[in-house]
Predict the 3D structure of the following.
Amino acid sequence: MKRAAQQDCSPPSPAYHHGDLRQALVRAGLEILEQGGIAALTLREAARRANVSHAAPYHHFPDKEALLTAIAARGFQIQTEEMELAIENARPPIDGLQSFGMAYVAFAAAHPSLFRLMYSHERNDSSENKEMAESSAAGHRRFIERIRERAGCSEERAQSISLLLWASVHGLAMLWLDRQLRWEGVPSLESLASQMTEMLGVVMHSEPT
Amino acid sequence: MKRAAQQDCSPPSPAYHHGDLRQALVRAGLEILEQGGIAALTLREAARRANVSHAAPYHHFPDKEALLTAIAARGFQIQTEEMELAIENARPPIDGLQSFGMAYVAFAAAHPSLFRLMYSHERNDSSENKEMAESSAAGHRRFIERIRERAGCSEERAQSISLLLWASVHGLAMLWLDRQLRWEGVPSLESLASQMTEMLGVVMHSEPT
DNA sequence: ACCTGAACACCGTTCAAGT
DNA sequence: ACCTGAACACCGTTCAAGT
């Protein structure tokens, strides 16, 4: 009922093409990223896929960087959704700490270009980024709390552990995507991640120094 | 004696401008990277700084990507040099494992754009990359050996520990450069790295699972 | 308010031509 | 062998003009 009055699918005008070009551009960007990588992601190509002129995006984004930021923001949403799903469906149900690490690495492997875009290029603290930062911080706080409960340690120490876990899986994912983990007889990314998160369990249950 | 016959510094010809344009381009690239970041690093700008036409680089590199690879390769050399220096001069002399982590993060903080270039964009296995890969693998093997001696564990386990250490400091550096580590009251990067490498000492001296 | 089409400066790449 | 200058296709960005 919130949609515009039905118009039998005839476009309201040959020029005004849809109500939400902004979202269409972000969607197009995700598609380009998946098909051709970051090099193929241009403003003009996104406009082409959205069936508008190459100047149209400038009515929704001040510049290309802003579109990239919006795509990255959408990426963080997708990451949250996919990770929550993966953690729920983990078989056999494994430790929350380990399943977090596995899900993080799995997301990076599934969306390499998007993952790189999200975590690269120091993006300015735009309003969009503030939203992202807040939702990300909230998730982070919940995660720290879970660690604190499970390990029965101080919040300060839980923070240290969570940073170590995050950095480890982030670094593993990045090094893997960059083809840096290719010596003789490399195990799969999955087994590396599993091995790594297991070792981190040792730290979690050890005495603080 | 291997140099060309002395010519009183007068250029051998107004067009042929130096003997080693290739190296000059790499050097120019490093300079651009430090001054303007990855966005400023164009083939034409590198040519400009080397005082040659914009087409000249194509006699030394097949395309832009090849120049980027050469710059990244030089970056790995610089990283090795700077890290060895930093580890030697660590005061007070700290554990080798910890000083490695600190030096790694320090390099990333000192050369953010170069560090990003080195570890990004899946570069093809060009001959240059094979050299890099080999020297990198050799260093890696020495490092694993040191861990094995110190922790008195199997080589397999030493490999796991070294990967955990590498991934941790790499992830920490990346997340820091990407401004992802900015919640309330963030400690300095140095103290985060120190804290992290200390925790990893726990893993190293713990019993294998 | 939202979109177009022309225009500008810049970039990567190619190529015939010069020494 | 190594470099230049012109040329081409593409991109980000701007702007007057249209509805």
Observations:
- Residues 15-17, 21, 52-56, 59-60 of chain A lie near DNA strand C (CB under 10 Å from a C1').
- Confidence is low (pLDDT under 50) at residues 1-15 of chain A.
- Helices of chain A lie at 21-36, 43-49, 64-88, 96-110, 112-118, 127-151, 155-177, 189-204.
